[in-house]
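The following block was generated as part of the benchmark described in Methods. Ligand: glutamic acid.
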Amino acid sequence: MKLSKRTETLEPSVTLTASAKAKELKSQGADVLSVTLGEPDFPTPKHIQQAAIEAIESGKASFYTQTAGIPELRQAIISYIEQFYGLTYDVSQTLVTDGAKFALYVLFQALLDEGDEVIIPTPYWVSYGEQVKLADGTPVFVAGQESNNFKITVEQLESVRTTKTKAIILNSPSNPTGMIYTKEELAQIGEWAVANDLLIVADDIYGRLVYGEHTFTPIATISEEIRQHTLIINGVSKSYSMTGWRIGFAVGNKELIQAMIDIASQSTSNPTAVSQYAAVEALTGPQDTVEEMRLAFEERLNRLYPLVLEIPGVKLVKPQGAFYLFPNVKGTMEICGYDDVTEFTDALLNEAHVALVTGAGFGAEENIRLSYATDWETLEKTVNRIKAFVENKRRK
Ligand code: PMP
Ligand code: GLU
């Protein structure tokens, strides 16, 4: 069968592929340790599950909902943004989607014409560039320097801006680096975007997962002008351990949101009804489990970080948020005799049965990504196996 040109250049999600490979090896009986997916390992909190059960039993989850989401959830999103961002939006400025991933997908479909450019700082989350391409847009990558904690600067942005630039994506805290932009850095980037009339796509999905003395400033809160230029992308997957429920949302410019709703109306019709009722409870119900899970991630980070530094050749600045470590393994690869990071991660999987994600999928050729959204025993064993793998290769 002759498939579309679109599929010829499409890179499938490396995170999902790595996780699938690990599952396949496991199903063949191999003792695989997987730190691939950014997916909290906690069950969805009980009160949220209960709200879903009630929605099913009452019959209200049986039917299509409004494409943009049930009114209760759009209202809950407004209250949530009011509480955590201190910003007020109208219902018409909100859209509920099948995960934050689909919010981004419909955004690019609504925003881009062929050849329109979107600036994407690297290392980037794996889906941004591919989603831009699926909308016939052109991703323009700007490399955040490791020496600058992987953050990009206005000078770098200005050097790639063209008349075709329409938007810039900002993901802070970042997947995969865990770095967080400061208020001052965001103000500079925001003012530059306003001055050039660009849309800021603020992927705030890890905003509640910040550690130590670090804080998260949503870029939309910096000034009214910046807020007018920002589309907020967020969701319940990460902070409420609800990845499987598939609920995300977008908040921002009314016309843009309406165009996104229209596209969703012709693609998914509506986000799953039962999940929407669960998300209402997540956003409006007790929030103590969010903090309990955050603390668990923080504890793992504090224990895992020094352990990872013990892997020969590894360089890593301590992440500030999200739940990933993105060490530079150039030195480690040299010790083991690899010069390609994907070959290195493939060897780790096939020979040591450690599944993690190649940095290449995030636009970084010297790094690997480990997710610590998994239990401590797995994390500790993972690092020990990597260390043993390196020592073994060194001897050969
Ligand atoms: N943005 C980033 C940076 C992510 O890591 C993820 C993880 N899946 C998403 C968006 C999408 O999340 P979801 O579709 O589960 O809401
Ligand atoms: N965002 C998570 C990750 O980066 C989940 C997988 C995905 O959607 O890519 O691992």
